[in-house]
Amino acid sequence: MSSANFTHVKINHGRYGRTTMPLPDPLNPGNPFAGSSGFTHLDGKRKWSEIWAALPAPLVGDPSLSAIDFDQWPEEYLQVAGRRGRLTAEVRRAEGGRFRQYVLGRAVGDRDEARAPAPTEEIEWSDHVALVFPHEVWTSATVTPVFRHWFETGELPADLTLRELDL
Protein backbone atom coordinates (compact mmCIF):
# COMPACT_ATOMS: atom_id res chain seq x y z
CA MET A 1 0.00 0.00 0.00
CA SER A 2 1.16 3.50 -0.72
CA SER A 3 2.63 5.60 2.05
CA ALA A 4 0.35 8.53 1.13
CA ASN A 5 -1.09 10.67 3.90
CA PHE A 6 -4.76 9.78 4.03
CA THR A 7 -6.98 12.58 5.30
CA HIS A 8 -10.46 11.05 4.84
CA VAL A 9 -12.14 7.70 4.58
CA LYS A 10 -14.98 6.67 2.27
CA ILE A 11 -17.23 3.88 3.54
CA ASN A 12 -19.42 2.14 0.97
CA HIS A 13 -22.47 0.09 1.90
CA GLY A 14 -24.14 -2.39 -0.40
CA ARG A 15 -25.43 -5.87 -0.94
CA TYR A 16 -22.06 -7.41 -0.09
CA GLY A 17 -21.47 -5.48 3.12
CA ARG A 18 -19.22 -2.57 3.95
CA THR A 19 -15.95 -1.56 2.30
CA THR A 20 -13.63 1.29 3.16
CA MET A 21 -11.27 3.30 1.01
CA PRO A 22 -8.79 5.96 2.06
CA LEU A 23 -8.92 9.38 0.49
CA PRO A 24 -7.02 10.54 -1.40
CA ASP A 25 -7.15 7.17 -3.19
CA PRO A 26 -3.62 5.69 -3.29
CA LEU A 27 -4.31 4.24 -6.75
CA ASN A 28 -5.62 7.57 -8.06
CA PRO A 29 -4.06 10.29 -5.89
CA GLY A 30 -5.20 13.87 -6.06
CA ASN A 31 -8.70 15.25 -6.25
CA PRO A 32 -11.28 12.47 -5.63
CA PHE A 33 -13.77 14.50 -7.67
CA ALA A 34 -11.74 14.70 -10.87
CA GLY A 35 -13.77 13.50 -13.83
CA SER A 36 -17.40 12.51 -13.55
CA SER A 37 -19.68 12.77 -10.54
CA GLY A 38 -18.52 10.76 -7.57
CA PHE A 39 -21.83 9.02 -6.88
CA THR A 40 -22.97 7.64 -10.24
CA HIS A 41 -22.31 4.06 -9.08
CA LEU A 42 -25.10 4.20 -6.47
CA ASP A 43 -28.04 2.16 -7.74
CA GLY A 44 -30.08 1.66 -4.55
CA LYS A 45 -29.82 -2.14 -4.76
CA ARG A 46 -26.22 -3.40 -5.15
CA LYS A 47 -24.53 -0.22 -3.87
CA TRP A 48 -26.72 2.14 -1.93
CA SER A 49 -24.74 4.48 0.29
CA GLU A 50 -21.45 6.20 0.96
CA ILE A 51 -20.23 7.80 4.14
CA TRP A 52 -17.29 10.22 4.04
CA ALA A 53 -15.42 11.13 7.22
CA ALA A 54 -12.31 13.13 7.98
CA LEU A 55 -9.65 11.18 9.83
CA PRO A 56 -8.62 12.67 13.18
CA ALA A 57 -5.08 13.14 11.83
CA PRO A 58 -3.51 12.19 8.51
CA LEU A 59 -3.26 8.40 8.51
CA VAL A 60 -0.10 6.78 7.22
CA GLY A 61 -0.28 3.03 6.94
CA ASP A 62 -3.20 0.61 6.92
CA PRO A 63 -6.21 2.42 5.45
CA SER A 64 -8.65 -0.48 5.78
CA LEU A 65 -10.23 0.83 8.99
CA SER A 66 -12.15 -2.44 9.20
CA ALA A 67 -13.13 -2.00 12.85
CA ILE A 68 -15.06 1.26 12.57
CA ASP A 69 -17.57 1.49 15.41
CA PHE A 70 -20.15 4.14 14.44
CA ASP A 71 -21.17 4.50 18.10
CA GLN A 72 -17.69 5.93 18.76
CA TRP A 73 -16.28 7.31 15.51
CA PRO A 74 -16.51 9.26 13.31
CA GLU A 75 -18.13 12.09 15.23
CA GLU A 76 -18.97 13.88 11.98
CA TYR A 77 -19.61 12.43 8.57
CA LEU A 78 -21.48 13.09 5.35
CA GLN A 79 -23.72 10.36 4.00
CA VAL A 80 -25.49 9.91 0.70
CA ALA A 81 -27.96 7.10 0.03
CA GLY A 82 -30.33 5.98 -2.70
CA ARG A 83 -29.76 5.74 -6.42
CA ARG A 84 -27.79 8.21 -8.55
CA GLY A 85 -30.87 10.05 -9.85
CA ARG A 86 -32.67 10.20 -6.50
CA LEU A 87 -30.55 10.54 -3.38
CA THR A 88 -30.79 11.81 0.16
CA ALA A 89 -27.80 13.46 1.85
CA GLU A 90 -27.20 13.72 5.58
CA VAL A 91 -24.60 14.98 8.02
CA ARG A 92 -23.94 13.56 11.47
CA ARG A 93 -22.39 15.79 14.13
CA ALA A 94 -21.46 15.43 17.77
CA GLU A 95 -23.37 18.18 19.59
CA GLY A 96 -24.16 18.54 23.26
CA GLY A 97 -22.62 15.21 24.19
CA ARG A 98 -24.61 13.17 21.67
CA PHE A 99 -24.77 12.50 17.96
CA ARG A 100 -27.30 14.43 15.89
CA GLN A 101 -28.13 13.67 12.28
CA TYR A 102 -29.52 16.15 9.75
CA VAL A 103 -30.97 15.84 6.25
CA LEU A 104 -29.34 18.29 3.87
CA GLY A 105 -31.43 20.40 1.51
CA ARG A 106 -31.03 23.25 -0.93
CA ALA A 107 -32.23 26.69 0.16
CA VAL A 108 -35.96 27.07 -0.46
CA GLY A 109 -36.70 30.74 0.27
CA ASP A 110 -40.45 31.43 0.14
CA ARG A 111 -41.36 28.48 -2.08
CA ASP A 112 -44.38 26.42 -1.06
CA GLU A 113 -42.24 23.39 -0.20
CA ALA A 114 -40.75 25.39 2.69
CA ARG A 115 -44.19 25.36 4.30
CA ALA A 116 -45.08 21.73 3.61
CA PRO A 117 -46.30 19.99 6.79
CA ALA A 118 -44.39 16.75 6.22
CA PRO A 119 -41.89 15.21 3.80
CA THR A 120 -43.52 13.34 0.91
CA GLU A 121 -40.68 12.44 -1.47
CA GLU A 122 -39.52 8.81 -1.22
CA ILE A 123 -35.86 7.84 -1.46
CA GLU A 124 -35.34 4.09 -1.63
CA TRP A 125 -32.23 2.04 -0.99
CA SER A 126 -31.78 -1.57 0.01
CA ASP A 127 -34.96 -2.30 1.97
CA HIS A 128 -35.32 1.24 3.35
CA VAL A 129 -37.48 4.18 2.34
CA ALA A 130 -36.71 7.69 3.58
CA LEU A 131 -39.22 10.51 3.29
CA VAL A 132 -37.75 13.90 2.44
CA PHE A 133 -38.96 17.27 1.20
CA PRO A 134 -38.56 18.10 -2.52
CA HIS A 135 -35.60 20.43 -1.83
CA GLU A 136 -33.87 17.51 -0.04
CA VAL A 137 -33.83 15.25 -3.13
CA TRP A 138 -30.40 15.16 -4.75
CA THR A 139 -28.84 13.60 -7.84
CA SER A 140 -25.26 12.39 -8.12
CA ALA A 141 -24.45 15.57 -10.06
CA THR A 142 -26.07 17.98 -7.57
CA VAL A 143 -24.70 16.38 -4.39
CA THR A 144 -21.11 16.08 -5.64
CA PRO A 145 -20.34 19.82 -5.14
CA VAL A 146 -21.57 19.55 -1.53
CA PHE A 147 -19.14 16.71 -0.83
CA ARG A 148 -16.36 18.50 -2.73
CA HIS A 149 -16.82 21.68 -0.68
CA TRP A 150 -16.84 19.71 2.58
CA PHE A 151 -13.79 17.64 1.53
CA GLU A 152 -11.79 20.74 0.63
CA THR A 153 -12.88 23.06 3.49
CA GLY A 154 -14.20 20.86 6.30
CA GLU A 155 -17.44 22.87 6.23
CA LEU A 156 -20.82 22.46 4.54
CA PRO A 157 -21.83 25.09 1.99
CA ALA A 158 -23.55 27.96 3.81
CA ASP A 159 -26.69 27.92 1.65
CA LEU A 160 -27.87 24.44 2.71
CA THR A 161 -30.80 23.72 4.97
CA LEU A 162 -30.46 21.24 7.84
CA ARG A 163 -33.46 19.31 9.13
CA GLU A 164 -32.74 17.25 12.26
CA LEU A 165 -33.79 13.62 12.19
CA ASP A 166 -35.37 12.05 15.23
CA LEU A 167 -33.26 8.90 15.53
Overview features:
mainly beta, 167 residues, two-stranded antiparallel ribbon, globular
Largest sheet geometry? 7 strands, antiparallel
Give me the count of strands.
Answer: 9
Give helix and strand order, one letter per element, not per position: EEEEEEEEHE
Uncertain stretches = none
Count of helical stretches = 1
Strand content: 35-45%
Share of residues in helices = under 10%
Number of domains: 1
Q: Terminal Cα separation, in Å?
A: 38 Å
Spatially, the strands of the biggest sheet line up as 2-1-3-4-5-6-9
Detailed description of the structure:
The chain is mainly beta. The protein has one domain (6-164). Helices cover 8% and strands 42% of the residues. It has one helix at residues 140-153; strands spanning 6-14, 17-23, 47-59, 77-83, 86-95, 98-106, 121-125, 128-132, 160-164. The strands form two sheets. Strands 2-1-3-4-5-6-9 form a seven-stranded antiparallel β-sheet, with helices on one face. It has a two-stranded antiparallel ribbon with strand order 7-8. β5 (86-95) and β6 form a beta hairpin. The radius of gyration is 16 Å and the shape is globular. The termini are far apart. The mean pLDDT is 83.
Question: Could you give a quick summary of the protein structure above?
Answer:
The chain is mainly β and 167 residues long. Helices cover 8% and strands 42% of the residues. It has one helix and nine strands, in the order ββββββββαβ.
Topology:
Blueprint: E1 6-14, E2 17-23, E3 47-59, E4 77-83, E5 86-95, E6 98-106, E7 121-125, E8 128-132, H1 140-153, E9 160-164
Antiparallel strand pairs: 1-2, 1-3, 3-4, 4-5, 5-6, 6-9, 7-8
